[in-house]
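Page header: ASSEMBLY MODEL / two components / 595 residues total.
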Amino acid sequence: MLSRKTWFVPGFRRWADLIGSGIFAVLFLSLVVQVVRRFVFGAPAAWTEELATIAFVWVIFWGTAFTVPLPTHVAVDFVVPRFAPSARRALYALGLAALGGCFLWALPGIADYLGFMLRERTPVLDWPYGVVYSIFLAAAVMVVLRCLAAIVRPPERSEPSAEA
Amino acid sequence: MSGAFLLMLGVFVGIALLRGPIGLAMIAGGIAYLGATGQDMGLAAEQILNSLFGSFVLIAVPMFIFAANVMNAGSLSERIYALAHALMGRFRGGLAHVNVLASVIFSGMSGSAIADAVGPGMVEIEMMCKDNRYSRPFAVAVSAASATIGPIIPPSIPMVLYALVSGASVGALFLGGVVPGLLMAASMMLVIIWIARRRKFPVEAPVPWRDIPRIFVRTLLPLLMPAVLLGGIYSGVFTPTEAAAVAALYALVLALLVYRALDWKGLASVLAESARSTAVVGIIICGAFVFNYVLATEQIPAHVAEWFTSLALGPLGFLLVVNLVFLVLGCLLDTTTLLLVLVPLLLPVARAVGVDLVHFGVVIIVNMMIGLLTPPYGVLLFVLSGLAGTPVKEIVRELVPFILALIAVLFLITFVPSLVLALPELAGYVR
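Prediction written out in full:
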């Protein structure tokens, strides 16, 4: 029988990936519509640039929150591996504790800023900035939770995936 | 330099050295600075989000990532390889030359060295190692070295990032990369000729000349992509961001409808991979926004400029010092961090000593591409070592002559700025 974690985690990841793909598709399609509207119909649309920008913000923080595990991020990986396994785990946990601690420290300030930004609206689509930016708060909360989870259960290091 | 600034550096360096994600470590450093100076913590969010919202040109980065992923998933790499093989396979060590030429062609469509390495790079490694004609470490080394051409010949993700921090024209940077990229390819081919003679590499059965037009036609549509992309930018029809989206659309139409090499399931997986890669690069960009805010508050760029000015180096001396510093730092840090955090510190000095910002950008990016090959932090080494199952140590041994050749090109373009600036000048970008 599958344990609770076993069935929940892959299912959640699949959905998170699907939503991430959807947001990326919105980013791509808004740029395509921008080009088509301008060059095919001769009627440029201001909303396409704004939607693309919002989707770009969401792709970054949705990924950071839900689809990119901590070890997949670009990291300096030549210091900690030189230590013995137990020291390695302790050092890794120390770094994560500092990282998670900083983000935890900033959470009230971030929430406060987003609350304030609910009053401001984007120039074209007229969406509240507080809602547009809310994904940043989700990412900050998830960084804290991911750090906690990785301290309790250290993950395997995966390949760097940065585009250079 | 205030105590809060030292705390920020301590938090960033500490977390980064303890294997924490670099982008998140930069944001954490910024948070520590804001806390220590009693500023509102929401300022970190404000700096990041408003900067992202105001940098439309940055959206070219996910589009170039997407275009490269589509090309890799849609058999375009194989077609490019076939053309390069038809042209270069007949010479001694031909497959190694094919590897370099395919990278040059792919570079005109992709702006990422990693995409070049995992796409055509892996195809070429497998072909070179078939029947043990070449040793695997040598094949991996050639793929890794030639992948560095990717972001030099336009389009280029690092050049888009550099344009963001420097204000230099993306179009001028793209044109400025053409000659250095070709020089890099030529230098690698010279190394291959030398090694091929020493090791008596095989000569492939030549593809008959009468077959070449057919192979060329098979590759014609992917080959048109650079023309669409660069033609659009230089004619002023598209902005660089729109051009990147058009390039991605073009690759998608080829892979999905023309070659039918990508199905809807494959497309979903390409979208997911592109979204994840964008998040990985994006979070470093966000970290750099916070970091640069702190650097500006502490007036660090002005102090760095003052220090460099006191050395009275002149343009060439400045570029030589920068090259040496970046060759060392390239072994330790990734390209995006160097570009977005360290380069802005040097830009006021470059302006003050009279170095052209397009020349400076291309030199610094070529330098950073060498950093992708040098241990202990050589991303191309890690990626290809993992994919090809070859130990990093063996790849590095084979890479040494290629790295030396690339360093020679780096110093050549440093000493002869016209190698970079002639094309942008011709196009009217630089005067």
